[in-house]
Design goal:
Aspartate Aminotransferase, domain 1, two-stranded parallel sheet, Aspartate Aminotransferase, domain 2, 13 helices, seven-stranded mixed β-sheet, alpha/beta, binds pyridoxal-5'-phosphate, about 350 residues
């Protein structure tokens, strides 16, 4: 007998994207923001006092809750702070799912969901997207205790309209968690559904739009009834005092945030066109990455060749994704260097050798 529960013994665990030690690389593999966080974050960091570290933090992170409520047009009671969006996924699955209370989600999607289901030992009902990545009808009738819809979806970048998600929320008997980790780069979001539906949790992350992946900060927006249940499950001090202060500062600087997001969206359009011109099939993305399908040759070989040139993109050798590369939108220079490298690889047959 092993030391761990059977499902933990069997689990392979989540495989995060490669984090190279070197800094002089082009890192387009984990959807970080290529721009620095707001200067207001660093000013706030300079103002951190020893007392803020000596004492335990506010368990609810109220300074952040108030700021997030203001930005989203809701009340602080609608907000729960999390140690990254991943913390919320883990809390929600632990709070809602068990052996008899399944989790459901469309696939392909964020590969953490099945890992968390396995650790919680709950059934995972996977409903395939069709080739247009529209909302799969059967998702409404799984009977799952928790349904997760990643919107914009990763790794496809596709987007489902809010009115369709509202209709789904109305049909489900369980909770609907809309994973909006990438919504800063889309045209609309689901926050209004929280007021309309008592079963909707919206997940937000500061890792993408706010350039704070290293800080580990995300949050839930939901009806206070749902927030109360989630709070029972979270660690008492799941976000630290420095993170609460810096995350609130980042939200306060909406000008900086919007400037970076708009730039990334413009560069996403350019990169999509350039990749298409090189022969990749690239669906329209609503996130800070694109999914490029290799029409001939091997995506795996291109991934290796790029890595040899210190350009890192994401590749999964799994059915449905093995002919595709997920590429985060970098700075203009980084995107240009990527395109130049791809031209070189394709012209030398490096995608086939
Ligand atoms: C779809 C999706 N959801 C949630 C997260 C969690 O982000 P974080 O924990 O960095 O806030 C990620 C991170 O890449 C993601 O891709």
């Amino acid at each position: 007998m092993g030391y761990f529960r059977d499902n933990v013994e069997r689990a392979e665990g989540y495989m995060p994207g490669f984090q190279p030690k070197a800094t002089d690389v082009i890192k387009l593999n984990t959807n970080e923001n290529p721009y620095e966080p707001s200067p207001w974050v660093f000013k706030t960091m300079d103002g951190i006092r020893p007392e803020q570290l000596r004492r335990y933090p506010d368990p609810l992170g109220n300074a952040f809750r108030e700021m997030a409520a203001l930005i989203n047009g809701v009340q602080p009671e609608n907000i729960m702070c999390c140690n990254g969006g991943d913390d919320l996924l883990s809390i929600a699955i632990r709070a809602i799912c068990d052996e008899r209370r399944p989790l459901a989600y469309p696939v392909p999607t964020y590969s953490l969901y099945p890992v968390l289901a396995q650790l919680q030992n709950c059934p995972a009902i996977e409903i395939p997207f069709d080739e247009t990545f529209g909302l799969p009808g059967p998702l409404a009738t799984t009977g799952a205790a928790l349904t997760i819809l990643c919107n914009p979806n990763a790794p496809t970048g596709s987007f489902i309209r809010v009115e369709e998600i509202a209709a789904l929320a109305g049909k489900l008997t369980g909770v609907l968690l809309v994973d909006e980790a990438y919504v800063d780069f889309a045209e609309e979001n689901c926050v209004a559904l929280v007021k309309e539906f008592g079963n909707v949790i919206v997940l937000r992350s500061l890792s993408k739009g706010y350039s704070l992946a290293g800080l580990r900060f995300g949050y839930a927006i939901a009806d206070p009834g749902l927030i109360e249940g989630l709070l029972k499950v979270k660690d008492s001090y799941n976000v630290d005092a420095v993170a609460i202060a810096l995350a609130a500062a980042a939200l306060e600087d909406q000008d900086c945030f919007r400037g970076h997001v708009e730039k990334i969206k413009r560069d996403r359009t350019v990169l999509t066109q350039q990749l298409r011109a090189l022969g990749f099939a690239v669906p329209e993305s609503h996130a800070n990455f694109v999914l490029a399908q290799v029409k001939s040759g091997s995506a795996g070989r291109i991934h290796e060749e790029l890595a040899r040139q210190n350009i890192f993109v994401r590749y999964w050798n799994v059915p449905g994704l093995s002919d595709k590369l997920r590429i985060s939108i970098g700075t203009e220079d980084q995107n240009e260097l990527l395109i130049a490298a791809l031209k070189g690889i394709l012209s030398e047959g490096g995608d086939k050798s």
